[in-house]
Amino acid sequence: MKVNALHHCHEMQLVLLKTAAVVCLVLALALTVGHASAITPLPHAFYGTLLIDNEPAPSGTVVTARIQGQVYGSITTQYPGTYGSDASGNWGPGIQKLIVQGDEIDNGALIEFYIGALPADQTFLFSSGAVSRLDLTVSVPWDVNGDGCINLSDLVLIGQSWGNTGPPHWTRADVNSDGVVNLSDLVLVGQHWGEGCET
Ligand SMILES: [Ca+2]
Ligand SMILES: [Ca+2]
Asked: CA triplet 62, 67, 146: central angle to 5 degrees?
């Protein structure tokens, strides 16, 4: 009986040890997982050409990347018609790419790009750690309010920003992207008057 009791006791100790080991393992896993989710995802970098209505966007143009309306990255261009440099350093050695980064970004999130105040024609899905060439274009800059119709509403917006200056196309009212809202912008709207409007 004594031997049996001793054996039983050893068994109990083994079970306790095993339980302790499992508890430790679970705790370690929980800590690791908790730690991993606190790490910011690797950024997604973009570079490429930059055209506003088939013309190279001027240097000094601000390109921003937004996800659900929130800005997660921006770059100010240093050369006309491009943003960021490629792997060989073309389009400006040492120039950074457009870095899209944030704690909350999920892989596969839809990235929208803006050239100044204008939404680009292209979008891209976020992929942590990726580097992508994405050529960005914007069309119909003379549709200042972006409603698809060129009319008085667009002229009014130009009038409200009349004489203001900023980086090229910082406002949609800077239709020709030269950094100032003036007669040249008004003329462009005039040249496309009535386009896209229901009659
Ligand atoms: Ca319009
Ligand atoms: Ca202008």
From this structure: 60
Instruction: Please give the distance of CA 65 from its chain centroid, rounded to a whole number.
Output: 2
> What digits encode the pLDDT tens for the residues 124-135?
999 999 999 999
Token pair, residue 14, equals 């083994």
DSSP at 39: S
Tell how far the Cα of 100 is from the centroid of ligand 2, in angstroms. Answer: 29
Closest ligand (CA of 175): 2
Tell me the residue type at 63.
V
Collapsing DSSP to helix, strand or coil, 53 comes out as: coil
Give the residue among 75, 96, 74, 62 at the shortest CA–CA distance from 167. 62
| pTM for the model | 0.67
